Every structure is written in structure tokens, then in C-alpha cells.
Amino acid sequence: MNGGRTSKGRENAVLYAILCYHDEAEVGAWPKAKDDAVIAKRRLVTDKLAANGKLGPVARLMPTTAATTVRSGREPVVIDGPFAETKEQLLGFYVVDCAALEEAIETARQMGREESGMFEVRPIRYFAPGSGAT
Amino acid sequence: MLYALLCYNFESVVGCWSKEKDDAVMAKHAAVAQEFAARGKLGPVARLMPTTTAVTVRAGPEPLVVDGPFAETKEQLLGFYVFDCAELEEAIEAARSLLEETGALEIRPIAAFYPGTGLK
Question: Is B60 in contact with A1 (Cβ distance < 8 A)?
Fold first, then answer.
């Protein structure tokens, strides 16, 4: 994967993806006040990283009911629905720049305190910030 | 509309690719990304390390840290793209162009996106 001419990528071991898994039925049933409170709490964590220039892209995904999967084959097959049927679903991700794994884990801990769900922390092998899409 | 293209493949297969094969796949991917970049429609792209490097934090009053990925799936999430597409069909077309002999791409519309600050 490569960002192309306008967005030179980099290979390193200090960027981490924090993949957010949660029961989408539960998250979808949150009242707006609860959803806003969770987002505000997450932002307290990410604002500190952003202030230090250590916050990469953040995305919140639509539910897996909105997913389409394209599977490889001689003639790729397009299927409605997500790739995997899991109890908790991938609902978003953060990219953070951390000095060590421990810092990425601590970030995930702070996001997960007094919440439900799971955060998978995975080092990024290659990253390109992209160009223009906002 | 922004779409995330989530790349799943057998990490055992991908990990065994020769450098030539890996380079060829990356070059093919770069060509697809380049088309979007040229129109200012390319968001972030990441290739993840294998799930053997993953750590999972389970939320709770006192979050628990466990070595390993969240899910043990036959194919693993190995990376993602964010593309700005006029419609789903365009994202599906991009996914087709990115596929290898094995694996699958899941396309998911993005509800909220923040490009981040400072990472270069």
C-alpha cells in the first residue's frame, strides 16, 4: 500500500492503530447523551496526543449492516454484509504516534475505563496520511 | 462519502510472499491509491503488523491487557484505506482492483472522520 506521489508514506514502528471493537447493538441503542459523553471522554484522551502532534487519523465506522464485502477469486464476488460475523464489531480506529507500546496501551486503557468493548493495539508497518480526503 | 476499505487476508500467506511478490502487490496498490490521490480523494492508508504483535485491552472499571488480537479469524485485518467516493459502486471497483488471489476487502461507510494533526 502506498499513498502515492502526493503523500509520501513512511515505514516505522512507532505508529500504532487502536482498533475499537464494540457490540454495535449496544452502541446503537445509546441515547444521544450517552454517545456524546463517550465521545467527549475519548476526546480528553486524544486531545493530549493532538496537542503534541501525536494524533493521526480517527474514524468512526457506520454499523456492519452498511458493509459490503468483496472476496477474491477469478471473478471477485460482491456480498452484502461484513467480512466477519463477530460478537463485537470493528466500529472505528485511531492512529497514534507513541514512543513505546506501553504508551499506546495506556491510551487504550484510558479510553476503555468505565466502558465496555475492546481495543486492539497493533503496530503499523506502513502509513501514508493521504491527500485531500476530509 | 468517505469509505473505509478494510483489507483481510491470511497473514500466513502474506508473510510468506517473496520480496518480489510483496513489492508487486504494493506497486499495484500504489497505482490504485494514486488515482484517488491525483483527485484529492485519498485518505490515510495503513498496513498493520501481523496479529502476533497485537495487544488487546478489554474495557471495564479496570481495563485488562491481554496479548494477542481481539478476534481469532481465519483471515486477519492487515490494513485499511480511506477513500472519498461518489458512491458505493466506486468503492467496490477500487476493492476489486486491490484484491489478490486470496483475501477479502470489507467496505464500510465512515460516520465521522478526523484527519489528525502532526503525523508525517
Answer: no
Residues 6+ positions from A11 with CB-CB distance below 8 Å: A125, A126
- pTM for the whole thing? 0.92
Angle at which helix B19-38 crosses helix B88-98, to 10 degrees, equals 160
One-letter amino acid for residue A83 of the chain = F
For A69, which of B33, B104, B114 is closest by C-beta distance? Answer: B104
pLDDT digit string, tens, across residues A7-36: 445 554 489 999 999 999 999 999 999 999
The pLDDT tens digits for A98-109 are 989 999 999 999
- Whether the predicted pLDDT of B35 surpasses 60: yes
Interchain pair B82, A130: CB under 8 A? yes
Is residue A80 left, alpha or beta, with left meaning phi > 0 and alpha meaning psi from -120 to 50?
beta
In-domain check, residue B65? no
CATH of range A14-62+88-127; options 3.10.20.90, 3.80.10.10, 3.40.50.1980, 3.30.70.1060: 3.30.70.1060
Q: Which of residues 33-72 of A touch B (CB under 8 A)?
A: 50, 52-62, 64, 66-72
Domain range annotation of chain A: 14-62+88-127
Residue to mutate among A70, A105, A121, with most B CBs inside 10 A, is: A70
**Domain of residue B20, CATH code:** 3.30.70.1060
Q: How many whole angstroms from its chain centre is CA B43?
A: 12
Q: ipTM above 0.90?
A: yes
- For chains A and B, count residue pairs whose Cβ atoms are closer than 8 Å: 259
Largest Cα–Cα separation, chain B: 48
Indicate if the pLDDT at residue B6 is higher than 70: yes
